[in-house]
Amino acid sequence: MDNPTKQKIILLLMAGAALSFSRSSLQHYRIYKSLGIEWQKINKSKLGLEIKNLYESKLIKEVKNSDGSFTFVLSSKGKVKALTYQFNEMKLKRGIWDKKWRVVFFDVPEKYRWGRDALRKKLRELGFYEFQKSLFAFPYDCEDEIDFIIEYYQIRKYVRYGVFEYLDDDVYLRKNFGV
After folding, report:
1. Considering the entire predicted model, what is its pTM?
2. Which domain holds residue 17?
């Protein structure tokens, strides 16, 4: 499914699900902000046709409400697609450095080598600095994104995230990130 309108519809439905699970007003704000931007980008004339196509492809399902109206929700297959799109498009925001280092470190057992290798590859793609094979640093807030990656690969119990206010001899790191 390479159709951008279909991808946006699925992501918007996923954002609705994320809203129901988020606990803080800051998380709500971030979700609403991204929702508004993506919704405005959808070609309204194609919307009905794409929803019909998504329904036929079994990525969404129609649920009849008690008042007679209908709600479209992601099917299990649609949720997997939405997570994959979100994962593939992930980028970390850069801004003003708060002089703190975000560090991801892990010890993933050999039997989950695929998850370890995939995590390492994703951290490199996102621009993390690799200190060692299982220790990566980044200068900007990225806890939500790291949580998502860890859940995506289902390796939470093997991965740790920390924020360091002090790191001795971080000159090379600061030079590497331009901070």
Report:
1. 0.58
2. 4-88
